[in-house]
Amino acid sequence: MLATILTAFKVAEIRKKLAFTMFVLALYRLGAHIPVPGVNVEALQSVQDSFTGSNILGFLNLFSGGSLSRFAIFALGIMPYITASIILQLLTVVVPSLEKLKKEGEVGQQRITQYTRYLTVGLAFGQSIGYVFLFRSQAAAAGQPLIDNFNAARVFMIVVSFTAGCILVMWMGELITQRGIGNGMSLMIFASIVSGLPGGVQAWATSSDPVFKVMMPFIALGVIAAICFVQEGQRRIPIQYAKRVIGRRMTGGGQTYLPLRVNMAGVIPVIFAASIMAFPPTVGQLLNNEFGREFAAFFSPNGWAYIVGESIFIILFTYFYTAVTFNPVDQADNLKKYGGFIPSVRPGRPTAEFLDRVLARLTFPGALYLATVAAMPTILINQTSANFFFGGTSILIVVGVALDTMKQLEAQLMMRNYEGFLK
């Protein structure tokens, strides 16, 4: 990995892309320390403990890179955009007009992306209102109001600031995807989680629980090893191409393979499941009554209801996202169009059924792997006195995004270092 990074800096174009990616991520982290106007910064310091535990506030604060605890302009992070993407992808399956747009290629995808942006603005606006009243409910713990002169004008100003910050984060993520290295949205979440690692390491080093201090490094290394092992696992389907006569030349022929990864969905199902499971406890916090507090505690990230719900959503989204990204019918039609076939399998519909059967068998262990990696470390950590949320979900996202980014970097290097036959 280090050799690949050092080699990448020797190529001018890749070096510029890496510098641009780092610059945008640095701006993103800078915005996480700038509070919105009208907030009592001194009062925020007195409620910091509410955002560092294994409750929902600590979980949301983790994915925002500490922006939520500072009431910063980037407190919403990239989660509204991810939620909007989930909604649009679900609607694409059930709404014929959206399904038709998806099949129109790049033009249709641009329209869907535009709809996603509009929905992101609406979700960010509504979530901003919820955060304002959530922070207002923390005034009792702080002993003084967190928002000075709480009125309609002040609320509107804070909500607009939050919404504008979310739109800016969305724009920066798209810039990284277009002009940088890697997926911008995933790198935003990666940067948010990594920014909390120093605090997590400090909490581990100063922990008074000997079991936690001994087990935590082994749990982290075991999860990282499992992620790397399964992420690189694939089933290679042999493909044979028939020879064809074009003019006076014989072309085609040969044998290759179709790689089907065990985990074709990557870390997307984990991000989707985390964003959905964060919704019930947030609603409970907003209610600010006995029922709301019990409801939020029931769905807290260290509770069994959250772990079971997240595991179910991870499995469902793994199947859903795999079906969206890989269509066996289209793949079988493309093989038949270009003269390819799977040995001992007839072209056309039998090939599609064969690929669908193989993919279903691969997706099931891949989904179980994602759910286990996301839940098991959290279950083990809950048995100790750990005072910070650093479970399998965080490690899974960090390692998965790092692996995907390194693959894209290696692909860029291969394109530019390939020596053609004319040399």
Question: Which descriptors would you attach to this protein?
Answer:
Preprotein translocase SecY subunit; two-stranded antiparallel sheet; 423 residues; 69% helix; 20 helices; three-stranded antiparallel beta sheet; globular; 2 domains; 5 strands; disordered C terminus; mainly alpha
Amount of beta strand: 5-15%
**Structural class, judged by helices and strands?**
mainly alpha
Question: CATH H-level name of the largest domain... which superfamily?
Answer: SecY subunit domain
CATH class of the largest domain: Mainly Alpha
CATH architecture of the largest domain: Orthogonal Bundle
Radius of gyration: 24 Å
Spatial separation of the terminal alpha carbons: 28 Å
Can you count the helices? 20
Looking at the structure, the CATH topology of the largest domain is: Preprotein translocase SecY subunit
Order of helices and strands: HHHHHHHHHHHHHEEEEHHHHHEHH
Instruction: Give the overall shape.
Output: globular
| Helix share bin | 55-70%
Q: What is the arithmetic mean of pLDDT? A: 78
Low-pLDDT residue spans: 419-423
Main sheet makeup:
3 strands, antiparallel
Outline the fold blueprint:
Layout: H1 2-8, H2 12-31, H3 41-45, H4 56-63, H5 67-70, H6 79-94, H7 96-102, H8 106-136, H9 139-142, H10 152-179, H11 184-194, H12 197-205, H13 210-231, E1 234-241, E2 243-246, E3 249-252, E4 255-261, H14 268-277, H15 279-287, H16 290-298, H17 304-325, H18 328-337, E5 340-341, H19 349-382, H20 392-417
Antiparallel strand pairs: 1-4, 1-5, 2-3
Helix pairs in contact: 1-20, 2-10, 2-11, 6-7, 6-8, 6-14, 7-8, 8-10, 10-11, 11-20, 13-19, 13-20, 14-17, 15-16, 17-19, 18-19, 19-20
